[in-house]
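Subject: complex prediction, re-run

Hi both,

The earlier run crashed halfway through, so I resubmitted it with identical inputs.
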Amino acid sequence: MAAPEPARLDLTGLTTRPAQVWGGVRLVPLTRDEPITGLRLHARAYGDEPGVVELDRRTRYTSYIPHGFVATWSDDDTPVAAYGTQLAQDAAGGRPPARTVRLRTHRRMARRVERNRLRFLPLHLAVEGYLALHFGGPEVVWDEWSQRAVRRGLSPRVEEAYLGAEVAGLADALKHFEIHPGQCGVLVHVADAVAAAFVVPHPDDYRALHATLVQDLYGELVHHYATLAAPVPRFEVRLPDDVATVAELRAAATRQQAEWARFHDTTMADGLLGQTYAMSRVYRMGDYTLSRFLPAFRLKQENHIGELITDRNGRTAYLKTFRLSEAQVRRAHLLTTLAAHHWHLPTTATALGLTEPQLGLRLDSAGFGALLREDVLARYRAG
Amino acid sequence: MDALTADDVLMFINAATTSTAQREFHGGADDQRLSLDFLHDYVIGNYRDLYAAALALDINDHNAALIVRKLLETAGDATAGQRRVEGALIARRLRALPPQRVYDLFGALRRAKVNNRRTRAIIREWVAGRPDPVFDAVKYRTGLKRALRHAHVAPGGELGPFLFTSGARRYDTPLLETWRRAHYEQASVYGLPYTVAEGFAAEHGIDRATFLKRIEPRMTRLERLRAQESARREKAEVVVDLGSMPLTRLASYVLALPVPDRVARRGELTGALRAAAVRAAGPDAGTWGRVAAVLDDSFSAFGSTRKRRRPLAVALACHYLLAELAGEYVPLWTSGRTDALLARPHGMTPLGERVLDALERSPDRLLIVSDGWDNAPYGLASEVLRVWRAKLDPDRRVVAVHLNPVYDAVDFDVKRLAPAVPTVGVRDAEDVPALVEFARFTEGTTGFAELRARFDGRVAKFLEEG
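This time it finished cleanly. Structure:
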């Protein structure tokens, strides 16, 4: 894996279209004027439906398999989930992804999984990236760290998330959403906070994957917002009264559309699109690069993690993001600051503007208490 | 006060035209049923005369049956004069309803324990007025039996033993005898009405293709239309005369066909739709001048699994009807499609843009057929219509009407686009000429007295016809 390089998300080629609102959920469609044809969802995703992925025998295209994508790859009808988002080079579309997990369901819960039925498991590469953050633990064995922290690092590291179906109103919003022709992505706002961004290279891929957003995972924050949210306003169009012809009326309407797109991209989605991310390349295949990215972990602000496939020019072909909750941001912030100061508690405390005992207690309340030696922690507690 | 009454009543008429208490795209069946029930209770409580008069209008059968039920349930609240008019209206409307609906209605009255003298008299009269009691007894056996028992009516001839006794006995009436024989003789099954024969066929284990082939002459027009595609799969021929089908029904049938079939049968389907439209247009054909229609084929036009593609079928039927009514016709589908026959519910609803397209053609009449969920972007159609009415067409030279096939349970009305353009509920495209004329009442420019006069006129005409 290459060293992270700071970059922004580049959504060139994608146009923001008018949002559709259902209760507290606002879905903002993104369309492409020219779909990317060099990268397509693995042909197996379309099952036996012919003609969706039109294959020209001479051209080779790269296909992608999103993480947790469940399909029957072999003929024995057992569903298999792809492990980690992957890129594949093939024209026939029959080869299974390189890394997979067999699905084991409890006998009583086992339902017949339809052949080639598309489905996502609530997991993804980006979360793995977040969990693995400074996973190795202290790199310098300062006195305060426990033996366990030195030997085993942060293991086991656990974070929780909610299934999309549990986010109030999201399933209904997706059901009532009218997909634009040419739509290649969507920004999900819950209670007018960006909850997730999802971009694919081709409209057919989007149509195939639209419903899987409800099987995706969302942070605790998004779940809370959705539960407590009142219906969000609709931003209805207002046209000026001083028009003399229908053409002028049309011009005013077009201006309004552009205004909305600008407002959305620079204000509503600024927390996602306006930030710099540390991109780490996972691997490259053909013209496309699969990376995952982490934010700067700014406290009390929006922080998104995600995974991304870009083309040669750095334009986004595939994007999936996850919004971290406040507690998750705090934990990551603590870990990053510690790592920046080589896990030295006094200097870290100074950098955070705290005393050493305060930092120790903060580590404890963030769930990292086991990293500190017990007697040290007791001393901190005693103040 | 009068304006308020007019508003309430028009809202009720819109609801009674569109809602069937079934699931819609944007709302569940329970919402629809609760909302409709509330509206009925509200209107019968405040405007009983107008509520009863609604039976004379083009409301749908579901609401007609509901009105009859509510009127009979609250018979005690009516004055003697009201009762006379109500009785006549109910009797007339019941004669116009399909029999299965009437038997359902009698069943609902029985369950609600409504058994006053008026109810019994109405059931008795309706049953006596049936053209073929023996056929009814076989086809709607349970319905008729329960209705007779509820209304204390003794049936004549062999119907008494047929309905109320068990055990085998021979009948002199041919149809009853056929029914008896069908229990053990396969050939007799084909002498029965289709729905009854279907049950016997299952019992005898008759192969579906054979059954369809032999029962075909006994099928009604709608049964033929419904069974046609399944018969084709079974390789049995069920002849249906598309040329005689009502327009909206035909549109629903066309939309249910897969696209390759529609392409292959283009000539036949288009011909049938045109013929139905010519019949529906009648003497008005070609009198509407330049017509621009904005037709909604967005994803929400799918309706629900209960009312498959109903909004789209209405739009498609309107398309063919308007083509006949207009001198010069411009159809504008929201998806931008130009081939109406291949319409399918897909994509968002850029209603505002299509309205602009329509206004650019400077038509004499502008018709919008849509469920009113204008979402690309929200409210553009409403704003365009508002500014256009205020600035570009202040003299109302252009007749603009919004026809909405979907009841919005939350608003107790069909969804409106703009106050400047009247919105009316539409059930069948065949009613469009009447609805467009009726739409001026919803603009608020005509008074309640005029509305009242129109209602009375319709009631008088309705009672005269029957």
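Chain B touches chain A at residues 25-26, 298-300, 335, 346-349, 352-353, 356, 359-360, 375-380, 382-384, 386-388, 390-392 (CB under 8 Å).

- K.
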